[in-house]
Amino acid sequence: MKLVETLDQVLANVAILEAVRSGRSPRHAGDYRGLIKRGTCFLPYPTSDGIAFAPSRFIGYMSNSFARHAANEARDGRQTNGVLNAILGQAPASEPVLEEEYRRFCLQLGFTPSRTGTFGVTRKYWVTPEIRDRLELIAEGRVIDDPSLSATQKDQLIKARVGQGAFRDALMGHWKKRCCVTRCAIGPVLRASHIKPWRVSSNSERLDKFNGLLLTANIDLLFDRGFISFSDAGEILRAPGISVEQLQALGCNPAGKIRLASRHLPYLAYHRATIFGRTPQH
């Protein structure tokens, strides 16, 4: 079978899976559960009742169906992962919140998932911007429902998610009320940005000023979506697919440098490993 070449072809395959998941096409329910159970790399997608998961080895072949998939003895996740990486502009990565959602999804389908994917490999997920926003809300809901936190703690943690409250105050103090990249001092356009995303941080990390950069809106978006990162020396790192001219047009000097403390470095290592260069370029 031919591998997919476009996002529309991927989404057409997702629609085949969704028809079974939603009950509109129940004939292949058993085959569907088998795909979900054996999968290792998934494209999560939002539904009206949560997050569902589309396995790479199914959605990576053009015009797939359950019959064609069963007959495709040459199916290979390494090949489908490669074309999906190219189409989505990112590689799949481990994601704690999505792993929890996957396990919940499997239980809803009537089986207990294994601790890892096939051959003991860690399950990985392509995190689209739409899914990332959904994960933020899921993580926020868990904070709200946590009985071990006081109302004040919950308020500070939730405000930190959107760069407000004590977290913003701490960053404004640390960075002297200036963007650490451009040195802009216009307060209303400065954003308190988490280095390690709020959704995957512990509660202490969510409020840690060293897990934050004070950035203008353009620079914040570039950093948040993985178009730029920073070396341990504070040098700006540019992701493949974004040019020097594009950075300059957005007010980011590619030769710029920020002043980091040693406590910033573990968070930046996380950003470089899991976010930097993984955002779709189209």
What does this structure look like?
With 282 residues, the protein is mainly alpha-helical. Helix 7 packs antiparallel against helix 8 and helix 8 (151-161) packs across helix 9 (165-174). It has two domains: 7-127, no CATH class; 148-274, no CATH class. The protein is 45% helix and 11% strand. Strand 1 and strand 2 form a beta hairpin. The chain is globular and about 60 Å long. The protein starts with 6 loop residues before the first helix and ends in an 8-residue tail after the last helix.
Order of strands across the biggest sheet?
2-1-3
Mean pLDDT: 93
Which value, in Å, is the CA radius of gyration?
A: 21 Å
Whole-number count of domains: 2
Low-confidence stretches: none
How far the N terminus sits from the C terminus, by CA atoms, comes to 26 Å
Overall geometric form:
globular
Structural class: mainly alpha
Largest sheet: 3 strands, mixed
Tell me the helix content.
Answer: 40-55%
- Strand/helix succession: HHEEHHHHEHHHEHEHEEHH
| Structure annotation, total helices | 13
Strand content: 5-15%
The tally of strands reads 7
